């Protein structure tokens, strides 16, 4: 990516978004007018105003950092997004494509012809090309690869050989390497000859003649130590390093924990092959927490807020279908007790309370557990303890709130025994919710799935069916 | 914080956690044994084993980075957490306290006497002291402040005068400042005299004689440029800077967007007063997404997974109570239609399907919107469009899945009109869910509240009451 020194924006991002939207709407208004007058006398003035608006918008966009343009593209519906996209200078296309989310990137690439894509991609680094490649048309990728030198091509291939969230796919290749048997003075002179250092260079990598990592020289140490000292005396010889097949999210957590800016990636022979930087890690941390939220609600991550209705339907389809099945099962549970309900119709009015509170409480538990698991705080050693604690919380809530609602039921339907059944059912369903709230994410994890996956849908299914069964069952036994 | 060069851990964090837990359990087993034999002949061997275990555990802990110890403390129940805490060397207490979450920090500080707290805090910087101060006993804070020099005391006071998530509370004071009319050579010599540079120093701050920020000198430029050049020629003179009363989360987004490592904080006269660093921002990004997840489920953030049962009950109380009220309202809606249910008991079995699917679909919508709002992608300009899109998705899902479930209802109860009512009710409830899924978070935001706050509880309340009303209402009109 071309390095852009970020300047202090004059207005907030929200303001700038609002301005772009305003310009777009003004543009559209004029376009509509011109369109309506077509066939009639063609009005030159209108056309001029139209063009002026576009020029103003284009000037606005030129002042913005690629990341800000990406943000604006994310926040626009498809047609307006493409209008803005066409106004952006083509040499900036590559940087912007790297900043937008996958879903938006797809819509932008679909709007470009091969020639434009090639122009946008030609200034990118190997790791950036590898990020884009999976979404580009096959022959464009082929042509791009042809244009690279052997080393670059090898790097793109290597990056593409890893899964999207493995360290090997996240690393870049912009490393400054030095030898340990030279003086700091020599290093300083060497850096000056480079003219430019890669972004996020907080340390130099010390390698031997075979390219094996011997240590790192933090820039801080380079600056404060006597220039006559040798690199080997000053370097840190046991730095945090990563392997290309490690999980990127684990690496991100290490960056967060040890406050790293950059870190070397080595192969299994200890040879330096790339580096990770904090900016990629921050993106990963952000994406991971987002997909946790979305997964819990049974959404996949690829939906941008202005995705087409059809795309959204498909995104939400799977869990809605699962929910339909579970809701149907809950309905059949009620079906089992239709006789009881016919005799005592109050049961129909009270049963959703038992199910609803259970669902809410279960969602609280499962949210806590999923979060603790994401932070690696849950191990097999403490499962039993967690279950005990959650059961304790549920027992108190059940007796307490169950008691309240039991009292209300007694007051409304003037039946002492109905109140007791209500309290008992609520307590039992809350206990079920607590148990399932711990066990569902743990079981998913043990099966190698994401513990957040559809967690909310599943716990609600349990507490619905369970709640109806417990309440109507108790009622059938004790009230009929 | 004392700077610790992070070393590559030999084992994963999970492994280390498991080892500590194992050592703790062995320790406890021996303690239980010794305890049981008390009053009897006191067994010296047992006591020896006991001590050996603790020594082994202590050695294990000494090898760990403060951030790793913090992680282990988070993952342990209270009693074991305190056992580990007492084994940690007191000079590391301060660093570890800074790393743990608020909830865990509270439990650790409660276990320390004033003397221990003072010892732990004495090596901390002003901004770190300010982080801890609100949770320390009053007289300890007083004593700490007394021990500081005037400048440090002023800095702690200043940091404490801002809200927890304002830039002023997040900044540190470890800045290296230089003048613009000196040569890079002079700067290099000056840095060498400092012996050590603050962590995350990727740029030096250029100020005039009044301390007003004139620009920043990225270390990268210092290294690659001719040492004879003046700072003024090489510096970036319009850097991204922040004000102390800005929202920290906005600053974090700017760090993410512009790939910053550090940035100056200036007062309203342009005077340099502190700096922000990426490590604080990463923590903020993480915390923000966590509290979003928790808020949606109606949880406050202060609960650690091993919080006492009572503390957890209080944490979850408020939203459970609200849920109880909404569930009761839904129950009264059903109560209105008891007559209809008595006549056609199938309604009781079918109504939770309508409510449940609505809740699930509404949760999907609200999750999308809350997320888009957190990313600043939603502005007043596009609300109407979002509502239209969500209504479109719901309409398709309603007709489709509503049709399926209508078919099932027809098959089960052999009533053609019941099937139609079911399909219609599901479609209408999904439309309601879509509308509310967009409007609830937007309204909360307009009222100045967190849009995620209890979002899940509220949408479920709407779709439950709404679903019952729509379904039973339609049934009463068309089937009775």
TrEMBL record, chains A, B:
Sequence similarity: Belongs to the SLC41A transporter family.
Membrane recorded as keyword: yes
Transmembrane regions listed in the UniProt entry: 317-337, 349-370, 391-413, 419-440, 452-479
UniProt xrefs under Gene3D superfamilies: CBS-domain, MgtE N-terminal domain-like, SLC41 divalent cation transporters, integral membrane domain
Keyword RNA-binding appears in the UniProt entry: no
Subunit-level organization: Homodimer.
GO cellular component, one term: plasma membrane
Domain of life: Bacteria
PANTHER family assigned to the protein according to its UniProt record, in alphabetical order: MAGNESIUM TRANSPORTER MGTE (PTHR43773)
UniProt-listed Pfam families: CBS (PF00571), MgtE (PF01769), MgtE_N (PF03448)
InterPro entries, A to Z: CBS_dom, CBS_dom_sf, Mg_transptr_MgtE_intracell_dom, MgtE_N_sf, MgtE_transporter, SLC41_membr_dom, SLC41_membr_dom_sf
NCBIfam families: mgtE
Keywords: CBS domain, Cell membrane, Magnesium, Membrane, Metal-binding, Transmembrane, Transmembrane helix, Transport
GO terms for MF: magnesium ion transmembrane transporter activity; metal ion binding
Domain CBS positions: 171-234, 235-291
The name this protein goes by in its record: Magnesium transporter MgtE
């Amino acid at each position: 990516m071309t390095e852009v020194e970020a300047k202090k924006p004059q207005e907030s991002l929200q303001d700038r978004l609002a301005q772009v939207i305003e310009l777009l709407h003004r543009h559209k208004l004029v376009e509509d007018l011109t369109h309506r007058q077509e066939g009639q006398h063609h009005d030159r003035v209108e056309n001029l105003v139209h063009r002026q608006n576009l020029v103003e918008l284009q000037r606005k966009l030129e002042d913005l950092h690629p990341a800000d343009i990406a943000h604006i593209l994310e926040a626009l519906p498809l047609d307006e997004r493409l209008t803005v996209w066409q106004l952006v200078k083509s040499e900036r296309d590559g940087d912007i494509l790297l900043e937008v989310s996958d879903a938006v990137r797809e819509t932008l690439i679909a709007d470009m012809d091969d020639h434009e894509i090639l122009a946008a991609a030609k200034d990118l680094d190997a790791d950036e090309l590898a990020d884009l490649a999976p979404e580009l048309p096959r022959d464009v990728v082929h042509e791009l690869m042809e244009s690279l030198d052997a080393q670059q091509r090898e790097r793109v291939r290597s990056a593409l050989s890893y899964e999207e969230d493995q360290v090997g796919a996240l690393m870049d290749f912009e490393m400054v390497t030095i030898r340990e048997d030279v003086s700091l003075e020599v290093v300083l002179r060497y850096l000056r000859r480079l003219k430019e250092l890669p972004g996020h260079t907080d340390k130099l990598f010390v390698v031997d003649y075979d390219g094996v990592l011997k240590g790192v020289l933090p820039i801080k140490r380079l600056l404060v130590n006597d220039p006559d000292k040798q690199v080997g005396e000053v370097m840190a010889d046991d730095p945090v390093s990563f392997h290309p097949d490690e999980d990127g999210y684990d690496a991100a957590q290490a960056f967060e924990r040890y406050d790293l800016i950059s870190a070397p990636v080595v192969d299994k022979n200890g040879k330096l092959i790339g580096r990770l930087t904090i900016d990629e890690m921050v993106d990963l941390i952000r994406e991971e927490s987002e997909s946790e939220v979305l997964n819990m609600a049974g959404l996949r991550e690829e939906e941008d807020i202005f995705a087409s209705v059809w795309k959204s339907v498909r995104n939400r389809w799977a869990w809605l279908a699962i929910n339909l099945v579970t809701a149907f099962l809950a309905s059949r549970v009620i079906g089992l007790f239709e006789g009881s309900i016919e005799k005592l119709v109050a049961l129909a009015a009270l049963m959703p309370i038992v199910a609803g509170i259970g669902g809410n409480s279960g969602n609280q538990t499962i949210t806590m557990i999923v979060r603790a698991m994401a932070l690696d705080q849950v191990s097999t050693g403490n499962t039993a303890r967690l279950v005990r604690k959650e059961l304790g919380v549920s027992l108190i809530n059940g007796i307490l709130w169950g008691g309240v609602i039991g009292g209300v039921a007694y007051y409304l339907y003037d039946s002492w025994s109905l109140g007791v059944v209500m309290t008992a059912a609520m307590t039992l369903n809350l206990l079920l919710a607590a148990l399932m709230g711990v066990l569902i994410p743990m079981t998913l994890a043990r099966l190698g799935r994401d513990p957040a996956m559809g967690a909310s849908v599943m716990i609600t299914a349990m507490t619905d069916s369970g709640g109806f069964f417990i309440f109507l069952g108790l009622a059938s036994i004790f009230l009929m």
